[in-house]
Write a structure and sequence with these properties.
Blueprint: E1 4-12, E2 18-24, E3 44-46, E4 59-63, H1 66-97, H2 107-131, E5 140-144
Antiparallel strand pairs: 1-2, 1-4, 2-3, 4-5
């Protein structure tokens, strides 16, 4: 996620709350540019929990809330480790279901293969989630520039 953005659109809701859409700034030169370029990102929604006075074209610094960053950090360790542990415990069950000629493989080798396969599976899940439109928290405006 880019750290700086430009306010693209301010929308008022019927309940007097405000929706703020920002465009990520690719470089600091984007701040002075009025023509626009083809390298613009997609506008996305941010929260203004500090109630800054904003206007269209205003440059802001954005980030995730601290609790969200902490949860993401913890999950980045827990998910792969738990997948590896699951692979370790699933391997003997899968080993018993293999055809007889494949059961000559070493049990530790099979466990290592399953651990690596489950780790690859967790990496695939992380890749898909990071590239999708699933967002677990909304970025918020930290400060004005």
């Amino acid at each position: 996620m880019r750290e700086f953005a430009i306010v693209k659109e301010l929308k008022k809701n019927s309940d007097d709350s405000e929706q703020i859409y920002v465009l990520p700034m690719l470089t600091m030169a984007c701040l002075k540019c009025r023509t626009g370029c083809l390298r613009q990102g997609k506008p996305f929604l941010v929260k203004n929990s500090a109630n800054f006075k904003l206007r269209k074209g205003c440059a802001v610094r954005i980030g995730l809330p601290r609790i969200s960053r902490a949860i993401h950090g913890i999950l980045s360790f827990i998910v792969p480790i738990s997948c590896a542990i699951a692979g370790w415990f699933v391997a003997p069950y899968a080993f018993s279901k293999l055809p007889l000629f494949l059961q000559t493989l070493d049990a530790e080798f099979l466990r290592a293969i399953f651990v690596l396969a489950f780790l690859a599976f967790s990496a695939g899940i992380a890749f898909v989630v990071s590239r999708s439109s699933i967002h677990f928290s909304t970025p918020e405006i930290i400060s004005l520039m």
